[in-house]
Automatic annotation (TrEMBL):
Gene it is expressed from: cxp
Highest taxon in the source lineage: Bacteria
Protein name in the entry: Metal-dependent carboxypeptidase
Species: Roseobacter cerasinus
Top EC class for this record: hydrolase
Catalyses which reaction(s): Release of a C-terminal amino acid with broad specificity, except for -Pro
UniProt GO BP: proteolysis
Annotated active site: 257 (proton donor/acceptor)
Molecular function terms, GO-annotated: metal ion binding; metallocarboxypeptidase activity
Transmembrane segments: none
EC number: 3.4.17.19
Length: 491
């Protein structure tokens, strides 16, 4: 076992360096002065080179070869599965290409932010072309002649393919479109209006973070343009944003990111700084953030408690009672922004991006035509026109940092969350009583014990199947949405 111990010691150092690299990304989004972007690009490239070299170090290959055929326990076998996968994939990507991707995507993030601020799509397109070309080159190295998009998707949801997701999303899209149309034709619930102080929003949002189990001794809440979660183990940070006319944006962005963060915080400490010490896939990660945000955070029981908290914080804000507030929180309304979309329409935003990025990677869509393609698809799916680039093709950070293959994991996570919600409700029969008191522990503890503590021990779909007792399917999500919005809108 000394060979295994040597391998794990080396791997822990690599994981620690990866956490440092992640902290650079966090700093870039939250604290870094704008003028530092070119230097940060060099720093990111240097870290990427170091990590790439360690992941393909000949010692790793020798250790893996020596452990071939050795009988190992479940945990050690899972560690080797992840290490071998990383070694095999990283070995296929030239070190210069990995560094180039890190440098260009770091610079691209700053260019995207400026283009978004100035509503200037043309400013962003040249670097986007370069990013796509680099990611295609990487996919060609990884794919072994197979579909390029699947090679990129495998970074975020191992074992899942574009055609599989296309079939699942094909079943979702018409049902969601029909339900959306029916809700928008029905009388609308009340809409939140007024001014909500930013500082008071941040005070309440920290209360919400703690209510959902976020450990602020090992985390922090900051503000950023695009909410995100960063880190794992003992240092897991989240960001949120405020809007003086829409406190729900702040509160539900926070709950969403806390779902990601508590997943990382709740992984068994035995796996700290090892491949098992992080979420197993982005689809599973998203299942945690979405079930926290929606099936728990937007439930009738929890919104009843939140209504009282908002009245205590902001005074009378124009919503008459808890039932009206529940309908207000879950109001279906037209909007441009994916992260602000209601549960019913959210996946339509994701499917738009999934189709467009597959076309970009395959070469069926030219980057110069992306804005027009986005606007045409948006008008077709949502029935109104994009008014400005920051509400359209420039709204998300993902493509600027090269995350092609990431978007579909959002909808896959919603599918997983639908399955988990069904199992959780069966396992925790008095859940609503606790949620009505602002106590999320029965729900979050169930998720901790069935999903989060395992980290990367099991493959993603196997993990969800173990938790739910059935293979994942879009059916529970659709049933949940139809029941919930059918009641709210009297459909």
């Amino acid at each position: 076992m000394s060979t295994y111990e040597d391998l794990m010691g080396f791997t822990r150092e690599t994981q620690a360096l990866a956490q440092v690299a992640g902290r650079l990304d966090w700093d870039q989004e939250t604290m870094m002065p704008r003028g530092a972007a070119p230097q940060r690009g060099e720093e990111a490239a240097a870290m990427a080179s170091v990590l790439h070299a360690r992941r393909i170090d000949p010692k790793v290959g020798a250790w893996l070869a020596a452990l071939d055929g050795v009988e190992l326990d479940e945990t050690a076998a899972a560690q080797l599965r992840h290490i071998r996968r990383s070694y095999d994939r990283t070995s296929k990507v030239p070190a210069k290409l990995a560094a180039r991707i890190a440098r260009v995507t770091s610079e691209g993030q700053g260019i995207w932010a400026e283009a978004r601020r100035t509503e200037d799509v043309a400013l962003f397109l040249p670097v986007l072309k370069e990013i796509i070309a680099l990611r295609v080159e990487e996919a060609q190295a990884l794919s072994g002649g197979g579909p390029l998009y699947d090679a990129l998707l495998d970074d975020y949801e191992p074992g899942t393919t574009g055609p599989e997701l296309e079939m699942m999303f094909g079943a979702l899209r018409p049902e969601l479109a029909n339900l959306r149309a029916a809700a928008l034709e029905a009388p609308a619930p009340p809409e939140l209006t007024g001014h909500f102080d930013d500082a008071l929003q941040m005070t309440l949002t920290r209360t919400l973070a703690e209510r959902f189990g976020y450990d602020l001794q090992h985390g922090r809440v900051d503000k950023a343009v695009h909410p995100f979660s960063s880190g794992s183990g003992l240092d897991v940070r989240i960001t949120t944003r405020t809007n003086p006319t829409d406190p729900f944006n702040c509160f539900y962005s926070t709950i969403h990111e806390v779902g990601h963060a508590t997943y990382e915080q709740n992984i068994s400490r035995d796996y700290l700084l090892t491949p098992l010490g992080q979420g197993v896939s982005m689809g599973v990660h998203e299942s945690q953030s979405r079930i926290y945000e929606n099936q728990i955070g937007r439930s009738r029981a929890f919104t009843g408690w939140l209504y009282g908290q908002m009245r205590d914080t902001f005074g009378d804000f124009g919503i008459a009672d808890e039932e009206a507030f529940y309908a207000c929180v879950n109001r279906v309304s037209d909007g441009f922004i994916r992260t602000e979309a209601d549960e019913l329409q959210y996946n339509l935003h994701v499917l738009l991006r999934f189709d467009l990025e597959r076309a970009l990677i395959s070469g069926d869509l030219a980057v110069d035509d992306l804005e027009a393609a986005w606007n045409d698809r948006f008008a077709a799916d949502f029935g109104f026109a994009v008014d400005k680039p920051s509400n359209g093709v420039l709204q998300d950070v993902h493509w600027s940092v090269g995350l092609f293959g990431y978007f579909p994991t959002y909808s896959l996570g919603n599918v997983y969350a639908g399955c988990l919600k069904e199992a959780m409700r069966a396992a925790v029969p008095d859940l609503d009583g606790a949620l009505a008191e602002g106590n999320t522990a029965p729900a979050t503890n169930w998720l901790r014990d069935t999903v989060q503590t395992h980290g990367g021990l099991y493959e993603a779909r196997d993990l969800i199947t173990r938790a739910c007792g059935a293979e994942p399917s879009e059916a529970p999500l659709l049933a949940y949405l139809k029941e919930k919005f059918g009641v709210i809108y009297n459909l």
